[in-house]
Design goal:
The structure is a single chain. With 231 residues, the chain is an alpha+beta fold. The protein has helices at 3-13, 28-33, 72-79, 114-125, 135-142, 152-176, 196-210, 213-217, 223-229, and strands spanning 39-42, 49-52, 66-70, 87-90, 95-98, 186-190. A hairpin with a 4-residue loop joins strand 4 and strand 5. Strands 1-2 form a two-stranded antiparallel sheet.
Amino acid sequence: MDIGVLKNRILNVTNGGFRESDYGCTAFTEFVRSHSDILELDEMRWPPSVTLKGVHDEPELASDPVRKQVRPDLWRAVMDFSGDRRYVWDDDEGVAKLAGDSTADGPAMPTITVEEFTNWKRAFADSVDDAEKDDLFRDWVEKLRPTKLLAPRVRHRWNDYLKEEVEKHLRSWFEEQELPLPPDVVKKRGGFVRSPDDELRHRLIACVRAMTTEELKTVQIPSSVLLRLKL
């Protein structure tokens, strides 16, 4: 869900008592990042989205895979095809900016079109097994539908595929413009190894999800934990 929706839901269940500062954080985004063992934050979308890890059938690995992240300004410059905004490359600052926000007369960034985006989705669809191509998937391929319609495993694969396409698109553009490629076009995140505490928390969450209502009634939670949640 969108990060703002998540915060509103937390505020609802805590009767407005939730404060990031109670957890040593100055912003809600920082709070989400501090719980990376159970939450995955995608800042390449706007607004950023948050996914609860382990909800779906995922292999239990000793370490999480290294994930790529395209630099946000470059990502927006390529993917912001829904409106009439135009982005330019500000060579003085080495960033992509909205045309009206930059005093530099730089080249226009290679924002893709809806048709190009659809072609990327069609190419990705060729790599998906027929068994996973339901009506929602086919509708998503041909229309501007939200990615959340995809099955979790397919959605993660599409996100990785899209990042690869955006990276290639940018590399090609910088080469054509004879501009030096920024060294941080793509950053790697993840790749951490769970600590014993993280692994225990991961397994406990999995157990709770598998419990029946009667089994949940037998769970004992320390009062100190309840107090920290401010329920």
